[in-house]
Amino acid sequence: MVTRSAVLLVLGRVLVKAFLIALAVVVVYPLVWMLLNGVKSNSELFSNPFALPVAWKWDNYVTAWNRGVGDYLTTSVLVTVASTIATVFISAWAAYGLTRVNIPFNRVVLILILGGLMLAPTVALIPLVKMFQSLGLYNNLWALLILYTAFRVPFTTFLIRAYMMDLPAEVDEAASVDGASKARAFWQVILPMCKPILVSTVLLNILFTWNEYLFAMVFTSGGALQTLPVGLTNLMSKHGTDYPVVFAGMAIAAIPVIVLFFAGQRYFIRGLADGVGK
Amino acid sequence: MTVSDTAWKPAASPPAPVSAKSPRNRTNKPARSRRWRNFVWVLPAVLLLGVFAYLPLVQNLGFSFLKWDIYSGRQTFVGADNYVRMLNDPIFWKSLLNNTLYAIISIAFQVFGAIILAAMIEGLRSQRWRGILRAVYFVPSAISLTVAGLLFYFIYEPEMGILNAALDVLGLGNFTQAWLGQENTAIFAIIAMSQWQGFGYCTLLFSVALQRIPSELYEAASIDGVGPLQRFFSISLPLVREMTGLMMIVTVSGAFQVFNEVMVMTSGGPNNSSQVLGTWLYRSGFVRNDFGYAAAVATAVFIITLVLAVIQLRISKKRRVQW
Known about the structure:
- The complex is a heterodimer.
- By secondary structure, chain A is mainly α.
- Chain A has helices spanning about 1-35, 40-45, 60-100, 105-115, 120-135, 140-165, 170-175, 180-195, 195-210, 215-220, 230-240, 245-265, 265-275.
- Chain A contains 13 helices and no strands.
- Chain B is about 65% helix and about 0% strand.
- By secondary structure, chain B is an all-alpha fold.
- Chain B contains 14 helices and 2 strands.
- The longest helix of chain B has about 35 residues, at about 90-120.
- Chain B starts with about 30 loop residues before the first helix and ends with a helix.
């Protein structure tokens, strides 16, 4: 009897592992297919979709780059860097104000900022278009910078605030004994101590901004002002018949974030797990 | 002095004390003005959110009672007309149905499927394999929905796509079709892509939740001769219950905000069969130039997401008290 259940257990383990690995292959294959299609010729795409490229046409990437992907990438990098920095600083200040400084209407401010977590961007879309048109910021990267920051501050503040609350009180006392002002305590003591959660929030904000589509599509229309997600759909509609170039463009958009995820996996997981409810 | 907010924070860790009054801070200035000066810490966040998130929310409600031509700028008050039109609009109901389908299917795969997967992964003996699988499943969640949507547009494509080609190889050639080009399959093809894209994210979070369960519980159960399946149902599942509740709400809330992938893959077509609230709102406002109507649809989205958010808050509050 013992041996039979032991055999079943081992068999179960093998089956589970085989299933998990098979699933991993199914999950990854579309991405591999994308990368391979980016170095094929157009006729190869249609002859046998599973075949490996005959001659690896790396110049598809060059073509994609010259057909606008280079510009889109530059814009994406610019918007991502600027809005991530703005979001993390504004959120860290707010988190500090909410946890370690005595501010008026503390409770109201807390509800106002964290309440932003439940706002869907689509709901604000129509008035925002009108607002940015009258501000003269329509079809302008400032629009994206402002909107990404505004809509990411609640989540980012939520994460940093939870972290700051766990820092012991002695930290502030030590800083004040040294005669440091609140501002100095923030920059020199608290902020450096928050480094792990700051890394998490930076990574999550990069991921968000790099991939955002709705605002990017509605608030920019000119070629060079477009970010990668919007630019790719343009590449598709303008040069729709040259599919390998579109695949190359997709790969250019996807590879940086995949690399980033693997490099900062630990921080990503921490941020995501804390974000759902610590 | 301290931030008293048990609602947002577990009682386990004491709230961070703030009352670090330095002698230097105790100047002659009245305490009140010092407090207001401290407001500068939260001012940027409050201003940004007030102007670019809350104000538009209120404005949207106002717009939904107008007939508004954005090009001529002419606005006329029409009362509840936009809402009446919305409730009589079959495409609005079609969109709502598609969002609901999205939610139901996502709960099945991304919540319950992910729990089972996470339990399978965490049950593996090799630490290395656990890490590799969690990361590999997550990769589709790192790429943008635009790239994922375009990729599956090609996968579903009848001429060059691998889905039909794979069906042919498997001898299921009868099932090959233009997945995104037909009214009865388009929305399901999009939802399927979304499961591929999102399940790894949920699996990762459930893995984290499972890791927090004390291993002694499993060891005790093993010694008592409890099998792996029963351990899953009597230990794992009950102990990730709160995470399950939260993930369900997050998933449903996401399902009612879907926009990107539908826009990229079908734009709501063919014949509006894959329209969702987000794309219908966009189309009404920016293609059909019917901004008042679009604002009414936006209000519907707001009400749905607000209700879900309140439920989410209740779940997390309850959990925090129990913890």
